[in-house]
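Issue: ligand-bound run for acetoacetyl-coenzyme A - logging full I/O for the record.

Environment: standard queue, default settings, no custom constraints.

Inputs:
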Amino acid sequence: MTKIAIVTGGTRGIGASISKKLKSSNFKVIANYTSNDDAAKSFSKENNIEVIKWDVSSYEECQKSVNKIYEDNKNVDILINNAGITRDAPLHKMSRDNWQKVIDVNLNSIFNMTSLVINKMRENSFGRIIHISSVNGQKGQFGQTNYAATKSALIGFSKSLALESASKGITSNVICPGYINTEMVAAIREDILKSIIETIPNKRLGEADEVAQMVGYLVSDKASYVNGSTFSINGGLWMD
Ligand code: CAA
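Outputs:
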């Protein structure tokens, strides 16, 4: 039976590479997106991947879409919690809105999506859940109290979920990418980004496909003993 995978934020950046990798590994992929209709449409057409628009920070929208996915596909075997945003500012300049938005999209979405698939995975005695965190959740970053708080929270969430789910054939793991060549990183001011790259031992940005390769392994049957782990892919920027 073809396994079904949901990739949140799966039409751009790291998520798009993950969607493509899973498709090429013969999974049926449903790529979620929230805002950029044009990018989603062309991604879907180019890659023959189903895309569905909903806001992962809204429990009601997640519930509606996940129910529909179950109706259409019967199962969800793989969940990649990838959707995330930044609203960078040092805390002394951070608005309450930019705090809340990042918490809602990066963290509350993890509860929304995971709680909506976990029971069926438990019934099926199979599941693969991967949370895309960040090097900045591990080490902290100037201007990212909001983002770093959510990204380190994913690690605690994932380890707890792994403990609860191991006996049911479900694994929960975290990947912490470093600075990857995506629109999110390209939005950093040029001089700041240059100074960040100078601190990366490999002296370059990572590629989204380098993250997707790790996802490809973690969702495979061969990775059933990898559980509750955190994987860094950051060119040596943080060694943990
Ligand atoms: N450490 C210490 N001090 C720093 C600093 C740092 N890393 N960066 C800046 N400062 C200091 C500056 O020297 C400056 O000091 P003075 O006022 O004495 O001159 C002061 O802080 C203000 O700096 P900025 O002018 O940069 O402040 P700003 O308010 O204009 O910008 C910012 C703040 C938007 C956060 C900007 O610093 C920035 O973009 N930083 C990079 C944040 C970052 O790495 N984001 C990652 C986004 S991609 C991502 O998140 C993906 C992933 O998972 C890796």
